[in-house]
Amino acid sequence: MSTETKYSLEPNNWVKNYADFLFNYTVTRVNNHEQAKDLVQETFFSALKAAENYRGQASERTWLISILKRKIIDHYRKINSKKGKAELKVNFYEEGDKKGSWLEERVPQLWDNKVENDIENTELKDVLNKCIDNLPDKYRTVFILKNVEHFQTEEICNEMGITSSNLWVIIHRARHQLRKCLEDNWFAK
User: Fold this and answer.
1) Taking the domain 1-108, which CATH number applies?
2) What are the beta bridge partners of residue 102?
């Protein structure tokens, strides 16, 4: 006979019970207090909308963390997309009559003698992004989560449903494919 615990949701207690934990979890991953607050709020909102789908197989906290992890991944996907970059605002003055912000893509760049280096870096970045985009879906996702977003091995394994040894094989193969792609498309020029 199974004595499986059936959990229930108590949305009225989420802020009191989980807000601090979720905020601390998020701020270490996005390194921005305001963005972390927004992601936690989005998590609570999404959880409320999805409450009818909650099956009680995981604790409230575990369920909220899984929603939050997806919000963090979506946050980085948005930042890394052209559309997301256009929506990010960068403050150039915090207060006073010059207070304001720029869209990230339109922030004035410093003028210096590094124009050629900047062009090369941009071209290399474009080639690298194309190489990453050409990785198989699973390789690309694991590579980005581990090397770009710096998620812990255990988190990635749980999210992707893979073992840690499988993760490292995927990382190795992704790096090998990226090296080959860069050799063919960048260094061979």
Assistant:
1) 1.10.1740.10
2) 90
CA distance 153 to 161: 12
Do the domains at 1-108 and 110-189 have one common CATH topology?
A: no
Spatial separation of the C-alpha atoms in residues 71 and 67, rounded to whole Å: 6
Determine the average pLDDT of the residues in 13-27. 91
Convert the pLDDT of each residue in 120-132 to its tens digit: 677 878 888 899 9
Instruction: Please say whether the beta carbons of 145 and 132 come within 8 A.
Output: no
Closest CA relative to residue 131, chosen from 107, 154, 147, 108: 147
Q: Using a CB cutoff of 8 Å and minimum separation of 24, what contacts does 53-60 make?
A: 54/9, 56/6, 56/7, 56/8, 57/4, 57/6, 57/7, 58/7, 59/7, 60/7, 60/8, 60/9, 60/10, 60/14, 60/17, 60/18
CATH 1.10.10.10 is the classification of domain 110-189: yes
Q: 95: which 2 tokens?
A: 């207060």
Q: Give the tens place of pLDDT for each residue, 42-93.
A: 999 999 998 888 888 888 888 898 899 989 888 888 777 655 455 445 455 5
Query: How far is the C-alpha of 142 from the C-alpha of 158, rounded, in Å?
Result: 12
pTM across the whole model:
0.44
* DSSP character at residue 110: P
Spell out the domain ranges in the chain: 1-108, 110-189
